[in-house]
Amino acid sequence: MNKVEIKAAASLASVYVLRMLGLFMVMPVLAILTQDYAGYSAMMVGLAIGGYGLTQALLQIPMGILSDRIGRKPVIIGGLVLFAAGSIVAGMAENMSQLIVGRVLQGAGAIAGAVMALAADVSRESERTKMMAIIGVSIGFSFYLAVILGPVISSAFGLSGIFMVTAALAALAIPLVYFVVPQAVNAAPQGDTLPALKDIRAMLANGELLRLNLSVLILHMMITLLFTYLPEKISAAGWPLARHWELYLPVLILSVAGLVLLMRMAKGWAIRLPLMFSVAMLLVAFAGYLWVPLHMSWLMVFTLVFFIGFNFLESNLPALVSSVAPAGKKGSAMGLYASFQFFGAFLGGAIAGVLRQYEGVESVFMLAILLCVCWLLLLAGLNGSQRLKRYTLTVNVTASEASHLAHQLANLAGVNDVTVIPQERAAYLKVDDTRFNLQQARQIVGEQQ
């Protein structure tokens, strides 16, 4: 990576961290700190925890498309302004309804698609994967940091203090985007970075992608279900909120070690097997919460089991979506995946709140166990095919020449799928890299120009 790409990766990853910290810091404390709010109920708590997911899911794809029309930075800055405004509304809330409005407004700052597109615009094709990986790691890092910092900050400044810190973080990210993130000189080919509305129906009709989209929806239902219950359980075990980080820190560190071990074990397995094993870990965790008398030691064990499974699924599902998506359609596939992800967070909060209010906490765990069983059946039908690598080649052909070029590229050894889009001056390839000869492909493209 050159200096511009390193600067872009660091600054965009920082923007992500600042924003995601704000979304996640409240998750481990909301269920406890809202008990004194007017209008408090289990249902309202669930909506407050997951409310951001509704607007994130609805606006994820439109905001990405808008960034292609008015520019990446205006959309990112506008999203950060909305996020900061929502944080201030939530921070000043005096009742649960106002708090939920603030959380929903936070979610309206759906900038993930625009950030990824800008990252693609300022990086060379050969370095784009590294750029995306750095940003992806920053998302995971921000979640862990938020879960630890949330209880610490809330003990000093209360729930409103967390939201005001969140607004300040969003405000800090705005000049970072405007002054530090490099300006894009060239727009990257859109097929693998931005969603297209015309592709959404086809993505929904793709059975493999639908299994993966439903998987991430259920996964984020699970994490939201967990945080409607876990903070109260830790407090009931005699740990004040200010000390909750002492449980989360070792559990999260050990879960990363467990993730590494699981990834090593899974080498050589059919693709669906480690996914199903991870889902089984979530099932075991929720069964433990439901049926085992939970002293603190058992609470830590089952929470560790949950996070090992969660970490594996969270890190591997996006890679599978990227592999399964048709050539030139990864942007649409990933945009739809993100929408399912955030909608899952909303559903988890809303359903957990209703069940806790009217049926009790046991019904939440029974739902989680039932969802895991259904999820295992869903994954059992997942195709165990190998992962394929993607290449994007620059082309300069007319619409009439595009079909001939696509046919030539498709006949190369190892090529699984080809899409040539003359308007983007791009040829998208999905290949088996053990058989594919990149130089041959480049030679064919060169002969056509």
TrEMBL record:
Query: Where on the tree of life does the source sit, at the highest rank?
Result: Bacteria
Cite the InterPro entries for this sequence. Answer: MFS (IPR011701), MFS_dom (IPR020846), MFS_trans_sf (IPR036259), MFS_Transporters (IPR050171), Sugar_transporter_CS (IPR005829)
- The transmembrane segments are 12-31, 37-54, 75-93, 99-120, 132-153, 159-181, 209-227, 247-266, 273-291, 297-313, 334-358, 364-382
Pfam families per the UniProt record, alphabetical: MFS_1 (PF07690)
Membrane topology (UniProt): Multi-pass membrane protein
Q: Report the Gene3D superfamilies cross-referenced here.
A: 3.30.70.100, MFS general substrate transporter like domains
Q: Where is the Major facilitator superfamily (MFS) profile domain?
A: 8-387
Q: Where in the cell is it found?
A: Cell membrane
Keywords on record: Cell membrane, Membrane, Transmembrane, Transmembrane helix, Transport
Q: What is this protein called?
A: MFS transporter
Q: Which organism is it from?
A: Pseudobowmanella zhangzhouensis
